[in-house]
């Protein structure tokens, strides 16, 4: 955990809970998770239903999170409009992605990574645990654990030492 108390290893599933009728980010995630679960158990009709549900919420949010994207638990899509995630990208646990973010190519986000609005991560690259990507940053290189990056091209503007224990 970092100073905010958010774990980079243990998902906080309450972050994905649907709390209101209109929670498009959470409903998009639910469609992906239920599709993947139905596909894993071989439930063809259920997987088709959740694929259609995913299409609906993808259209509403104008986002592209592919049905087979590997997403750790506890993902927050605070404002899910215009988020584009390459099918080969991997999202770690307890991450937060704001609107208009693009993960292009095989981008790997560690645990508890916050990606600011409009950021573009152009892979292949890896972002370490507890990193912060600033709004509108263009990231083309690996980001170390606990670093905050910003700018075009993105540069490290601060580092938080990981806690021991």
Can you give keywords for this protein?
2 helices, globular, 5-stranded parallel beta sheet, 165 residues, UDP N-Acetylglucosamine Acyltransferase, domain 1, 22% strand
CATH class: Mainly Beta
CA radius of gyration is 16 Å
Give the SSE order as H and E letters.
Answer: HHEEEEEEEEEEEEEE
For the biggest sheet, the summary is: 5 strands, parallel
Predict the CATH topology: UDP N-Acetylglucosamine Acyltransferase, domain 1
In short:
The chain is α/β, with parallel strands linked by helices and about 160 residues long. The chain has two helices and 14 strands; from the N terminus they run ααββββββββββββββ.
Written account of the structure:
The chain is an alpha/beta fold and 165 residues long. It has a single domain (13-159), classed as UDP N-Acetylglucosamine Acyltransferase, domain 1 (3 Solenoid). Helix content is 22%, strand content 22%. It has helices at 24-41, 44-61, and strands at residues 64-65, 70-71, 84-85, 90-91, 96-97, 102-104, 107-109, 114-115, 120-122, 125-127, 132-133, 138-139, 147-150, 155-159. The strands form 3 sheets. The chain has a 5-stranded parallel beta sheet with strand order 1-3-6-9-12, with no helix packed on it. Strand 13 and strand 14 (155-159) form a beta hairpin. Helix 1 runs antiparallel to helix 2. It is globular and about 50 Å long. The N and C termini lie close together (9 Å). 36% of the residues are buried.
